[in-house]
Amino acid sequence: MNIEKYISSGILEAYVLNDLDQDQKSEVEALADQHMEIQEEILRIQTTLEQLALKTAVQPGAHVKKAILDKINGSPALEKKVIEREIKSKEQSWMKYLVAACVTLLVVTSVAAIYFYTQWKDAENELNQVIAQNQAITQQYNTVSSKNDELSQVLAITVNPSFNRVDLKGLDISPDAAAVIYWNQTSNEVYLNASGMPQPDAAKQYQLWAIVEGKPVDAGVFDIDSPANLTKMRNITNASAFAVTLEPKGGSKSPTLDAMYVMGEV
Amino acid sequence: MSEQQLIERLIAKDKTALEYLYDHYSGALNGVILRIVGNEDVAEEVLQDAFFKFWERIEMYDRKKGTLFTWMLAISRNLALDKLRSKNFKKSKKTDDIENSVSTSDSRHFTEQKIENIGVKDILKDLNEDQKFIIEMLYFQGYTQSELAEEHGIPLGTVKTRLRAAILKLRKLIVL
């Protein structure tokens, strides 16, 4: 590049007067590093302006020197600024406390939220357990209650003097089998407890017969259930005996005599 | 005391070194500031700020970019220009200008007139009108080249070459 032309363009004067933007400034400085002539020219311009300043000096008032020395000594002249700074730093530290307080509050509330959430979850779990327990207990109660009802019913029948007890005893094919009939000869009601009977095959069912005037009368089929239970059978009048045979499921019109398990006379 | 010694003592926070700076350069710097801000009280305020900056920022001084005095001049000019461009000050100066133009008996205006005449006229007397104007506006009034070009309808290139010519002339007048 043409150094002379560059120097005479006036850009170096502008540089010394700090009248260039950052890019132009960097450009001048880079060129000054490379070209001695540019560096020297800058120095000459600086010197000229220094001399111009020195030749056109205007002495400041005597108090200015004292004020400057006071300022760098941190004496009274400075105090105001120091106080301002302190106030500023106090404000800043106050802000710091505020920020710290906010952060603390945030942490505390977050911890509390987690804590209460956990507590709530625990409580919910406990409540569910209690509800389940309660349901189980209710079920048990219902079972017990219905059992109690059955037993009350059984008791009411067994202690009722209107019911005759008829014990049916095991016959040859099943000597240990036993059943009990409670028969009310006034109301004709028949109740049966068959807990002493062996469990039949799934395809078969016991059938109760009443012997009336020498003939078997169907009193209904039954299953073996809980020991204390009484099963209500068909009403029977004028029976002289009761017997149980094992029949195909659903019962038969007439008893299969060689499958008679128990029998008892009134 | 060499400039290098002076700088070392300033870095070491030797107050007598700052006093030395003040005794030698406060007048020159105050003159530069005063011509920019146009008010003695304001100029002295800026001068105080400038010296405080020299004291606090001496580590920033880069020898490669010029002498210590040039560095100080640049800081002083920048502070003065900042002051001039600060909104409140601009307003009050403008108002002053209007007032002064109708009432020449204003005492401060009288002082300012005197300041502008001190030394400057003698030094600038051998420059032609264009060169005088350029130095006055760019150096003493603190205009930027583009501001001057815009406000006075002078092409920027012309501003640059006139400044160059003016400084060359000044160099012959002052330095030699």
Features:
heterodimer; A: 266 residues; alpha+beta; eight-stranded antiparallel beta sheet; 6 helices; rod-shaped; B: 176 residues; 10 helices; 0% strand
Helix-strand blueprint:
The complex is a heterodimer of chains A (266) and B (176).
Chain A: H1 3-8, H2 11-16, H3 22-34, H4 36-55, H5 62-73, H6 76-158, E1 163-170, E2 178-184, E3 190-196, E4 204-212, E5 215-222, E6 231-233, E7 239-248, E8 260-265
Antiparallel strand pairs in A: 1-2, 1-8, 2-3, 3-6, 4-5, 4-7, 7-8
Helix pairs in contact in A: 3-4
Chain B: H1 3-11, H2 15-37, H3 40-57, H4 68-85, H5 87-102, H6 107-117, H7 120-124, H8 129-140, H9 145-152, H10 156-175
Notes on the structure:
The complex is a heterodimer of chains A (266) and B (176). Chain A is α+β, with helices and mostly antiparallel strands. An eight-stranded antiparallel beta sheet of chain A has the order 5-4-7-8-1-2-3-6, with no helix packed on it. Helices cover 53% and strands 22% of the residues of chain A. Residues 75-79 of chain A have low confidence and may be disordered. In chain A, helix 3 (22-34) packs across helix 4 (36-55). Chain B has 176 residues and is mainly α. Chain B is built from ten helices and no strands. In chain B, helix 2 packs antiparallel against helix 3 (40-57), helix 3 (40-57) crosses helix 4 and helix 9 (145-152) crosses helix 10. In chain B, 34% of the residues are buried. Classes of the chains: A alpha+beta (266), B mainly alpha (176).
- Helical element count of chain A? 6
Could you tell me the number of beta strands of chain B?
Answer: 0
Biggest interface reads: A-B, 39 and 50 residues
Percent helix among the residues of chain A? 40-55%
Mean pLDDT over all positions of chain A:
87
| Largest beta-sheet characterization of chain B | none
Short description:
The complex is a heterodimer of chains A (266) and B (176). Chain A has 266 residues and is an alpha+beta fold. Chain A contains six helices and eight strands, in the order ααααααββββββββ.
